[in-house]
Amino acid sequence: MTRRDGPGNLTVVDRGSSVTVRGLASLVVANLRLYVREPIGTFFTLAFPVMFVLIFGAIYGNEPQDMFDGYGSMDISMPAYTALILGSVGLLGVAINTSSYREAGILRRFRMTPLRPLVYIAADVTANLIMTLTGMVGVLVVGWLLYRVRFEGQAVSVFLAVILSGTAMFAVGYLIAGLAPNARAAQVIGMVVLYPMLFLSGAAIPLEVMPDSVRTISDYLPLTYVVRLLRGLWFGEPWGSLLLETGVLVGVLVICTAIAVRLFRWE
Amino acid sequence: MGLGADMVAPIEVRNLRRTYGDVVAVDGISFEVAEGEIFGLVGPNGAGKTTTIECIEGLRRPTAGQVRLLAMDPSTERRVVAERIGVQLQESALPSRLHVEEALALFGSFYRRSINVDDLLELLALTEKRKTAFAKLSGGQKQRLFIALALVNGPELVFFDELTTGLDPQARRSMWDLVRQIRDRGCTVVITTHYMEEAERLCDRVMIVDRGRIVALDTPEALIDSLNVDKRIVFGLPEGQDVASLTSLSAVSRVEQNDERVLVYGHGDRFTGAVVNALEDTGVPFTDLRTEQPNLEDVFLSLTGREMRE
Q1: Phi and psi at residue B265, in whole multiples of 5°?
Q2: How high is the ipTM of this complex?
Q3: CB contact under 8 A, A6 and B114
Q4: Is A1 a member of any domain?
Q5: Across the interface, do B92 and A10 touch by the CB < 8 Å criterion?
Q6: Which of A147, A155, A207, B143 sits 20 to 30 Å CA-CA off B48?
Q7: Is A263 within 8 Å of A178 (Cβ atoms)?
Q8: Number of domains in chain A
C-alpha cells in the first residue's frame, strides 16, 4: 500500500476505501489529545466533579437517609455528578469549541477535505463521550474509595443512558453554537443556560433538599431528566418505569439535532 | 492552449456569474487553466477573485454559467474533487494545541492517498518544528504548514489564496521558489494575489480581474508588451562625456542627459543589449547602469484607470 511517486520522491500511502473509518478514528484521537492539553476543559470534565465529591462528601457524608430512600448523600450523587459532567461538556464544551473553531477558520480548513460533516460531528461526540466516561470513572473511584458508594443497576443500561443523555446534551451544545454569532456569545449563552440548570436539576445538589417551587421549575429543565434517568437505572429501576425521562431526552436529542443541523455553519 | 483532443483542461469556466442579492460579484467570466501551469488571478480586494475560486472549488454554486474542475462538476461532486485537489486558504486556522506533525497525519487520514508526513515536513522545512503547537508557529511557519496541508493528498491541482500576504520579502521569495518546485512536480497551480510583482515573477499566465470581469488574460510579458510603453535605461556619466550618438540606434527613441545622469528610452527585446554594446564600443566610462521596465502595476493602471491598492 506504499509506493514511491514521481519526480519528487515523496512517499505516497494509498488506503483504498477504509478512509471514513480511519478519518473518524484519527479525528477522535486528535480530539482527545487536544482535550487533555486544554487545562480548562480537563478541569471541568475531570477535576471539577471530583471536587464536588470531596466538598459535598465532607459536608454531608454518606450516612443512609430517609429522604433518599435509605441511600446516602454520596450514593445518589454518583449519577447526579455524571449528569453534571454531561451538562457542562455539552452546554459549555461543545458550544464553545464548535463556535470558536468556526470563528478561527478551523472548520473552514476541515471543509476543504473529503471529510463528511457527519464524520466530523461523530468524532467530536465520541471524544466528548469518552472524556465524560473518564470523568465519571474518576468520580466513582473517589466515591468508592472514600464512601464505598453503592451501585445496584446494570452497567450496560447506565452506559446506554449516558450515551443517550450525552448525545442529547451535546445536541443542545451544537444548537447553541449554531445560534451564537461568535464564540464569546456561545460561552455566555452556555453559562446562562448551564449554571442555573446545574443547581435546579438535582445535578449538583439533590432536589430532595429543595423547596417545592424549585422542584416545579426543575420539571422544565432537560438536565433534570438526565439526573432522574441515570439515578433510576443506577439503583436498579427498569427502563419501563423511566419512559417519561427516556422520552424527554429522545425528544431533546431529535428536536435539537434537527434545528442544529439547519443552523450549522462551517464559517 | 494547444490541448490535445484527449486532454481536458484542469479548470474550465464558462460564463460564470455569481450575485449576492443585488451585488454582482462575478459578472460572466470564461477562462481555462492548462495542465502544469502557474495561473494567477490578480485584482484588488473585492474584484471577485475569491468568489471565482470558491465557485471553482465547489464551495459556492454559480448563479449562472458552468464550472468544470478535473472534468467534473465541483458543486455536485465535491468529495470526489476534494480527493484530487489541494487548497490553502487565506483565513483559516488549526486547533492551537495541535502539533505540526499531528496536523499532517490527521489531515492525511481524510484522503484515500496521502503523502508521508516526514517527506512533507522536509519539503516545507518544518522538520524541526514537527512537535511544535500550531499557536507557537511564526506567520511564515503557519503558512508553510498550510501549504503542506494543501499538498498532503498529492493533488493534481492546488489553489493558493494570497499565499504571501503578511510575509517579509525574503520569506516571499522562498515561497515563490517553493511554488515553482510544486509545479515542477507536475501539479497545476492557481494562485490569487494582489501583489503585482508576485504575479509577474511567478505566474505563467495572469488573469486580471476588476469589478467581476476579466480585464486581461495573458503571460506577464505579453501583458507588459501590450502596453507599448518605453523601457528606460539609466546610468551615470562623468561631465564632459557625450552619448548623443545613441539616438542613431533603431531601438532607441530618445536620450536625456542632465548633469551626470543619462536616461535612454526605447523598446523591443534588443533595446538593452544594443545600448550596452554601443556604450562599450565607444568606450565612455558609464557607471551604475540599470534598466527600468513597465510592470503589471502599470498594466492594471492603464487597463482600469485606477491604481492597484490593498
Answers
A1: -105, 145
A2: 0.87
A3: no
A4: no
A5: no
A6: B143
A7: yes
A8: 1
CB of A70 within 8 Å of a chain B CB? The answer is no
Domain boundaries, chain B: 11-225, 231-292
Please give the C-alpha separations between residue A120 and each of A101, A126, A170, in angstroms, as whole numbers: 12, 10, 14
Put simply, the answer to whether B108 touches A7 (Cβ < 8 Å) is no
Residue B157 pLDDT > 90, yes or no?
Answer: yes
User: In 3D, which of B20, B127, B41 has the Cα closest to residue B90?
Assistant: B41
pLDDT tens digit string along A72-111?
Answer: 999 999 999 999 999 999 999 999 999 999 999 999 999 9
> Domain limits at A229?
17-263
Partners of A115 on chain B (C-beta within 8 Å) are 110
CATH number assigned to the domain covering B11-225: 3.40.50.300
Phi, psi of B7 (to 5 degrees): -100, 130
| A158 grid coordinates | 447506565
- Tens digits of residue pLDDT in A118-153: 899 999 999 999 999 999 999 999 999 999 999 999
Contact (CB, 8 A) for B90 and B161: yes
Entry pTM: 0.85
Is the pLDDT score of B48 beyond 70?
yes
Asked whether residue A3 is domain-assigned, the answer is: no
Question: What pLDDT, on the 0 to 100 scale, is given for residue B44?
Answer: 83
| Any domain includes A2 | no
CATH of domain B231-292: 3.30.70.100
Beta bridge partners of B265: B232, B254
- State the pLDDT at residue A171: 95
Domain membership flag for residue A180: yes
